[in-house]
């Protein structure tokens, strides 16, 4: 049968079809479309707590899960550790020192510079002329106390070691003699001479163990190993093989970077309420750390008319280094009756569905948003507070400081009632 004949047959059937049969066929088509749309709806994943739940198999299961969502109220987003890492989510305990600085005022700030902690820094400068015989470290290397750094020698070193061996042997001989066999002055002279020669060896950074070993092995004179006096990182290393350095020349510096100092120059107006021992906030790039004011010069620079303020801060994992620029924020002179709040990076804040500022808190259920009030904003930092925030602090929750935008977008896609309004 050709197509023309088939078309004519259809027209003939349609012509003889009664109106009731036409309505019946249209009803069947509408019913089929309704069934297809219902199946498509039931095939959608049911959202609960921010995660995509398994596909519902029956309409009854879907109704049950949606009802439990309504009863739960505010929902939590659940993410595995791998998902958190992929989304770039970083957390901090709400009790962290860097978040909780009493009476912090973001308007009281100063540009500062990170410097080494002088209490945890050692400069290696032997007090005799020395020659570099061997190197055992490279600049920037982390070393432990007692590890060899350089092998040093030279004529002055050999003379100092020989003088000590002779003086120590003489003092040992005199010390064994009876009091009647040697005068008091002679005994004292021998002892003082031995101690003087020992002090010279200590001045070239020989350790007590190395000095004792020298007494028993005098053939080893002429060189010694310069050992690390502290745990730290090798810096300002200028020693070259074969080079001779005059007495007192710094060969290298060891710095323990677990702590750093922050130097800032403040005007007399800014230092009005600065007190030694009070807290400060240090901002370096996207990192914020708590510090403690350890000193102020109490004198003004003749050129800049500013006063130097020193802040000590812990530097976990040695992520910051001397020479970097920083911003220092100080506490104000008055206490806010509404609470001091916490300081968060701007990346921790997002807008909720109702336009209010929100942050994300992690608890045993997952990530939940809470409303906060933004009190101050300055250079990428926000001072926030709120009753829900205080409750979260008391419960010792964690706060999201990075990746909040991802959580907010997931929350919006899930269609949660953001603040259970």
TrEMBL record:
Source domain of life: Bacteria
InterPro entries hit by this protein: Beta-barrel_RND_2, MdtA-like_BSH, MFP_Cation_Efflux
SUPFAM superfamilies documented for this protein: HlyD-like secretion proteins
Boundaries of every CusB-like beta-barrel domain copy: 260-332
Coiled coil regions in record: none
The UniProt record lists the keyword Iron: no
Gene3D superfamilies the record matches: 2.40.30.170, 2.40.50.100, Helix hairpin bin (1.10.287.470)
Entry keyword Transport: yes
Residue span, Multidrug resistance protein MdtA-like barrel-sandwich hybrid domain: 120-255
Pfam families in the cross-refs: Beta-barrel_RND_2 (PF25954), BSH_RND (PF25917)
Keywords: Transport
Family as reported in the entry's similarity comment: Belongs to the membrane fusion protein (MFP) (TC 8.A.1) family.
PANTHER family hit by this protein: CATION EFFLUX SYSTEM PROTEIN CUSB
Protein name: Efflux RND transporter periplasmic adaptor subunit
Record organism: Shewanella putrefaciens (Pseudomonas putrefaciens)
């Amino acid at each position: 049968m050709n197509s023309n004949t088939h078309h004519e047959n259809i027209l003939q059937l349609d012509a003889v079809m009664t109106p009731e049969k036409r309505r019946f066929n249209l009803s069947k088509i509408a019913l089929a479309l309704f069934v297809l749309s219902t199946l498509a709806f039931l095939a959608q994943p049911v959202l609960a707590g921010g995660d995509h739940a398994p596909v519902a198999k029956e309409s009854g299961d879907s109704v049950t899960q949606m009802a439990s969502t309504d009863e739960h109220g505010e929902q939590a987003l659940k993410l595995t550790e791998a998902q958190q890492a992929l989304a770039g989510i970083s957390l901090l305990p709400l009790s962290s020192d860097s978040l909780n600085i009493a009476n912090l005022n973001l308007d009281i700030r100063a540009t500062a510079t990170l410097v080494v902690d002088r209490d945890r820094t050692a400069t290696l400068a032997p007090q005799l002329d020395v020659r570099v015989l061997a190197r055992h470290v490279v600049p920037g290397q982390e070393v432990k106390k007692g590890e060899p750094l350089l092998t040093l020698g030279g004529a002055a070193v050999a003379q100092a070691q020989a003088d000590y061996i002779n003086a120590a042997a003489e003092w040992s001989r005199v010390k064994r003699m009876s009091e009647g066999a040697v005068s008091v002055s002679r005994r004292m002279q021998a002892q003082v001479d031995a101690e003087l020669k020992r002090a010279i060896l200590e001045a070239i950074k020989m350790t007590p163990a190395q000095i004792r070993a020298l007494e028993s092995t005098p053939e080893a004179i002429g060189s010694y190993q310069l050992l690390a006096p502290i745990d730290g990182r090798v810096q300002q290393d200028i020693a070259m093989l074969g080079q001779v350095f005059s007495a007192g020349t710094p060969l290298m510096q060891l710095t323990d970077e677990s702590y750093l100092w922050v130097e800032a120059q403040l005007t007399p107006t800014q230092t009005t309420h600065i007190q030694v021992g009070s807290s400060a906030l240090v901002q370096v790039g996207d990192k914020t750390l708590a510090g403690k004011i350890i000193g102020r010069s109490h004198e003004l620079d003749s050129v800049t008319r500013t006063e130097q303020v020193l802040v000590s801060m812990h530097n976990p994992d040695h992520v910051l280094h001397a020479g970097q620029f920083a911003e220092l924020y100080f506490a104000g002179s008055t206490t806010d009756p509404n609470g001091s709040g916490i300081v968060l990076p701007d990346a921790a804040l997002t807008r909720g569905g109702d336009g209010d500022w929100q942050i994300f808190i992690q608890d045993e259920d997952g990530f939940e948003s809470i409303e906060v009030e933004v009190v101050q904003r300055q250079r990428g930092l926000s001072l926030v507070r709120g009753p829900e925030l205080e409750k979260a602090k008391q419960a010792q929750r964690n706060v999201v400081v990075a990746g909040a935008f991802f959580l907010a977008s997931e929350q919006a896609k899930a269609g949660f009632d953001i603040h259970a309004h």
